[in-house]
Input
Amino acid sequence: MSAAKSGHIAVIGLGPGGAHQVTPEASAAVVDAKWFYGYGPYVDRLELRPDQVKVASDNREEISRAQAALEKAATGERVAVVSGGDPGVFAMAAAVCEAIEAGPAEWREVELTVVPGVTAMLAVAARIGAPLGHDFCAISLSDNLKPWETIEKRLDAAAGGGFVIALYNPISKARPWQLGKAFERLAKILPASTPVIFGRAAGRPDEKIVVTPLGDVDAAQADMATCVIIGSAETRIIERGDRPALVYTPRFSNPAQGARA
Amino acid sequence: MSAAKSGHIAVIGLGPGGAHQVTPEASAAVVDAKWFYGYGPYVDRLELRPDQVKVASDNREEISRAQAALEKAATGERVAVVSGGDPGVFAMAAAVCEAIEAGPAEWREVELTVVPGVTAMLAVAARIGAPLGHDFCAISLSDNLKPWETIEKRLDAAAGGGFVIALYNPISKARPWQLGKAFERLAKILPASTPVIFGRAAGRPDEKIVVTPLGDVDAAQADMATCVIIGSAETRIIERGDRPALVYTPRFSNPAQGARA
Output
């Protein structure tokens, strides 16, 4: 008897929230799958046919979700795992790879496609100007999966190196103090005037974008749906009268304006 | 006499290359503009109506292109500036902001929209697994606009801090040695087994994705259309028999596996 058909798993990035930011490739991948695994709010964004099946799970269950999806795909089914933003940035693509590496041999035979999307920091940046216009980094502030000391080391390296910093997973009920600590740490390296952007739900109807100097920042302005972007010492603000101010980081770098560290 | 109508400028990200990765928002912004400014190959991707006008310019002329676009918009016209990938990542959004800041007051009255897109590193990462699955940074390797010493400092900070590194603008005819130097420098900090991904033209028909250990790397594998991703010490490879190997960085971080630095 020959091996079972290996099936297919697509890890799909749905973008920051609005249908206008879902790529045609992602839409086609949704049409093409039968089983949909994902965090409830992401799965709920999908408009599915009666023959398509939603399997929603909780936020913290990435690995068991990836395993369930791979198990289904290994039976020959067409499976989708959906992420907000881009699935490769602090999202399900890495969880699926982890599950494949640790899982049974037949999971390696499943055909895997990753469909990229517009990740949150790009959507937030677009709404305010071009804060990511020069070298930048993305750090997950969650210390569920790495020690807080590693996060502190990376914040220091990024700010000291002159990178703009995008913080994902900045705060949650279970992690209330980390963002404030991160700001305190960055304030030792960066000027108090450094712009901090709180970008909540960028591209969605409930979008809220707030810019505050690092010296006056209040971590309570962030929630789970916020991506926080902290400028470098070279990030600038352009006042525009009646129009909202622009925040951008020039393409050129002048070391004389670099971080104090 | 009242002021002239202020016009509108949209800085549009066309994604990595294929029409399947252009968001509906970007497509709508193209329909909505009359004048199109951009680097020739990006402008040539557009299918325009007879009443829409292409103004192509050379690769290195970002600021004069931004100025020409703002001048046109300030006369009340609807103008688009197109970028490949995301316009906020080493692209035209920052150049337009620079031009606004240095330009005449009426340029601040122009309505500005930035339309985000899938940037190259996300498209490359999607084709190989999830190399950006944990903390990462993006560095432009061009020393046209910043000193080489600044780039070296950032490479050291990023590799020493445990970030995966995406290099944009890795090499060109005018900058032949920089990528090789960068690899040499990173090899002092990262294990020789660290995966390096050369992602050329991801998502396009001429796509080519190559993975090499840092110890065997050859900078000549890159060209201007390549985005290079260098793993961290935690980035892993999953062999899959007949299927291409996956490269991914786990969501969790174990400091014991961190960089040697």
